[in-house]
Predict the structure.
Amino acid sequence: MTRITVTVDGSTYSDEVEPRMLLVHYLRESVGKTGTVIGCDTSNCGACTVHLDGRSVKSCNVLAVQADGHEVTTIEGLATNGELHPMQQAFHECHALQCGYCTPGMIMQAIDVLNENPNPSEEEIRVGLEGNLCRCTGYHNIVKAVQQAAGQGATEDATAGAQS
Ligand code: FES
Ligand code: FES
């Protein structure tokens, strides 16, 4: 077992973990952040996407020990004082979800896309989200939501809410 200390959504956690434990399992089972979901466990679907030091990663493709000393933001760290993050609000308003299983990862990836490029074209949004699969094939409204969020200048660092 290895002791790791990780800041998740603004709170610090220190836990003993097996060296082989995946970050997604650590977040769900040790920290209790079940908003981050597992869609495939083979790094194909992106449902498990979180931010590690502000950049999106597929947390089923990262070991928990690799997050030692770093900051993780999950979907549960985006809302601030009861206010949805602008990207969450845009997904809501554009009906960008059906079953919602892909949504946490889509939103985390979409924020990263806008942090990289605040004014992406539709094509650039689609390329930015290509590592995230929606089994409901709801892609059109997802892209519309990202366009709406971009139009509203929703480019702030996703970790800002978690740290406030
Ligand atoms: S669960 Fe991580 S990419 Fe599918
Ligand atoms: S809304 Fe069902 S998987 Fe995307």
